[in-house]
Amino acid sequence: MKKIVTVFNIVVLTIIFSFYGCSIADQANSDSSIAPSSGATTHIVKMTGDYEFDPSSLTIKQGDSVKWILIARDHEVASGTVIETKDGREGVPDGLWDSGTLTKGVAKQSFTYTFNSTGTFPYYCESHVDLGMIGTITVE
Ligand SMILES: [Cu+2]
């Protein structure tokens, strides 16, 4: 009888640990990145109601993608540098990518770009560059 109880305990513990293991794996996957089977990762950057890219700086691997997702307000995401002028900040596009306007409530609420070369890639929101809505992607 004691042996049966021991076997039963092992089975129960195995079931409990396998469930526990699953929930830990799920939490890890609910991080801000999606890993397709190819090995490349899609990283998420939120475009917030506080005129911020979240996170504003991000380091990724060559071949990875970044998906900017609109959370609130209308925003754009365009690659290029930001300069100071007498009228304030101004974005100077470098032509790598430009999402156009992303608007809540319409179909286009995210924009994805794949980084196939290494380097530092500054970007900004055209409408809110003066409010400091600026970000950087570093590709290693
Ligand atoms: Cu914006």
Task: Explain how this protein is built.
With 140 residues, this protein is α+β, with helices and mostly antiparallel strands. It folds into 2 domains: 1-30; 33-139, Immunoglobulin-like, CATH 2.60.40. Helix content is 20%, strand content 40%. It contains 1 helix and 10 strands. It has one helix spanning 2-29; strands at residues 33-34, 42-47, 53-54, 57-60, 65-70, 78-85, 88-98, 110-114, 119-124, 134-139. The strands form 2 sheets. Strands 1, 2, 3, 5 and 8 form a 5-stranded mixed sheet that branches. The chain has a 5-stranded mixed sheet with strand order 4-10-9-6-7, with no helix packed on it. A hairpin with a 7-residue loop joins strand 1 and strand 2 (42-47). Residues 51, 75, 125, 127-128, 133 line the site of copper (II) ion (CU). Residues 51, 75, 125, 127-128, 133 line the site of copper (II) ion.
Summarize the topology.
Blueprint: H1 2-29, E1 33-34, E2 42-47, E3 53-54, E4 57-60, E5 65-70, E6 78-85, E7 88-98, E8 110-114, E9 119-124, E10 134-139
Parallel strand pairs: 2-5, 4-10
Antiparallel strand pairs: 1-2, 2-3, 5-8, 6-7, 6-9, 9-10
The structure holds copper (II) ion.
Question: Summarize this, please?
Answer:
By secondary structure, this protein is α+β, with helices and mostly antiparallel strands. It has one helix and ten strands, in the order H-E-E-E-E-E-E-E-E-E-E.
